Amino acid sequence: MRGFVSFVGSGPGDPELLTLKAVARLKQADAVLFDDLSSGPVLGHARAGAELVAVGKRAGRPSPKQDHVSRLLVDYALGGARVVRLKSGDPGVFGRLEEEIAACRAAMIGFEVIPGVTSASAAAAAAGIPLTRRLNARRVQFVTGHDVRGALPEGLHMAALADPLAMTVVFMPKRTFPELAEALMGAGLPPQTPALLAENVSHPDQRLTRSTVGQLALDLQAQASRDGPALILYGPICEEEGA
């Protein structure tokens, strides 16, 4: 008898930001394969006796390979387990969801995707700013700050990313933002463009740093350590909230 896989978004870490459906799936699961950022209080909703398996990947640290994670999902489900693949934020936003869905389909295992609060929305909410503004932020764009090697991805559309009338959110940015900022300013983005560094969003040690693209690049370049989950938002961030 085949099991079933629920890809569940755990949000940015605050258990109160879990959806009701996410909590229900955790309470039903036989096995929970969770990311690093989905651990802690969120796992308190898992049913007693469920197997809890850490499979998170963190930049610059030893991490399970993606094919190993996909194999675990398949093996648990082929054994008849109800599996929750608990992903931080929203499963479909830089969460390697596509590879894991492909593994389920190849093994003919049923699955569902339960969305979660993306850390971009949580960071904007924590800062008290909108992601869109009727006149000044005509679109929102998400981009990853590093590729599979940990370097700034090649082939980024700099003209779009340097649009001062777009709100841009950079995921996993701290190591590569100085390089990205140099390219953005070279493409015409003013260095004084407002920027927000959001670290450990929704956790007790959350930190929000308001700056500009140019200054934030300098600050990150000077930092000895750039570990820890973070986002950078830049663009038409309301000036009155930054006062």
In a nutshell, what does this entry contain?
The protein is of the alpha/beta class and 243 residues long. The chain has helices at 20-28, 66-78, 97-106, 119-127, 158-161, 177-186, 213-222; strands at 4-9, 31-34, 51-54, 82-87, 110-114, 139-144, 166-171, 194-199, 207-212, 230-234. The chain has two domains: 4-114, Tetrapyrrole methylase, N-terminal domain (Cobalt-precorrin-4 Transmethylase, domain 1); 119-242, 2-Layer Sandwich (Methyltransferase, Cobalt-precorrin-4 Transmethylase, Domain 2), CATH 3.30.950.10.
Identify the notable features of this structure and list them briefly.
single chain; 243 residues; alpha/beta; Cobalt-precorrin-4 Transmethylase, domain 1; Methyltransferase, Cobalt-precorrin-4 Transmethylase, Domain 2; 2 domains; five-stranded mixed sheet; 7 helices; 10 strands
